[in-house]
């Protein structure tokens, strides 16, 4: 039944049924109240006629329900004046008096002092005692209790219907949310569960198709990245091998080598080395499992020195390089560590034209600060744009702490290789290498 109605149909039919039931029920109660009111009026008139007849036979004053309007309070009947201690004093205020108790000859008197354009008027009326009238005519108080009970019952029914409707709707919606939160690349191709309502099933199918499309695009991107990186390794290796052959040919040749040839070979060597590092970085980013990163004991200070020596050609003129290193043997994956530190050092060397580059290392913590003497020089990571971006993605995947902060005239990057804490600046340092060099 729920599948045929759908979510919108269920809500619409429930609300319409509830509204029709309430309108029909209160229409029936109103009709019953109208008929009961007319019966009460007729019973009251017949009861007063009987009381007047009995009063005439017994020779006592009968009930009077006419309005008595007089100019003065003294003109009112004696029985009415006797019921009140004094004449009504406040204009427009209703005064009441009950005389004779709840017996058959009890009276209820009303009096009002009313100001009119012709002067003040005193208006009075006498009725049978309300308890006697209620007992003689019909249980009006019982009808009020019935109305209250009907109202409370209606409110209870409405509340129960709303609760049942909410539970009927919220249960599959909650299941849909839990299913969407559990989607991953492993269960994305599994059939969509049944969520009772066609609207929810269509929404779940659309969600799965959208995620499946995004997953397929990501897989194509990763495959393209991996294949491209693998394909680039071969020509890069060919270029670097031929560079080595050219250098050997130059050294074994009998003719005097041309200095321009050496400069050309150096530029080709640097470009191929950069391509090799970028390709290796992309290949490592394409891996899905951290377990594929084998770890070993690394001398981190020596690794930094080797990277600096290999990238020293990137230092521009008048750049002061300072190394503050401490002997540290860390259990780390060698290739990711070399890639991260190489990218950071290369980025610092390339973006400093005239200034300083400081490399600080303690245990597994490394900080690199490059600052230009010319404060107007932009501090953004222009030129080799892949350096910091790839490093950020790499450290995020490995779970390493990485901080990249722009300074007024340069940049400061900090990386903690592994899970070690950042060492305090004021701690005693065991400096192994402190080198300062200026490239002229």
Task: Write up what this structure looks like.
There is one protein chain. With 440 residues, the protein is α+β, with helices and mostly antiparallel strands. It has four domains: 1-61 and 139-182; 63-136, no CATH class; 198-280; 293-438, Heat Shock Protein 90, CATH 3.30.565. It has helices at residues 2-58, 78-83, 130-137, 140-181, 198-252, 259-285, 300-311, 334-350, 386-398, and strands spanning 68-70, 94-99, 107-116, 119-128, 295-299, 319-325, 329-333, 355-362, 365-372, 401-406, 410-416, 433-438. The protein has a six-stranded mixed β-sheet with strand order 10-11-9-8-6-12, covered by helices on one side. The protein has a four-stranded antiparallel β-sheet with strand order 1-4-3-2. A hairpin with a 2-residue loop joins strand 8 (355-362) and strand 9. It starts with a helix and ends with a strand. The model is unreliable at 129-138, 378-385 and 426-440 (pLDDT under 50). Keywords: ATP-binding, Cell membrane, Kinase, Membrane, Nucleotide-binding, Phosphoprotein, Transferase, Transmembrane, Transmembrane helix, Two-component regulatory system. Residues 227-421 form the Histidine kinase domain. GO terms for molecular function: ATP binding; phosphorelay sensor kinase activity. It holds the Pfam family HisKA.
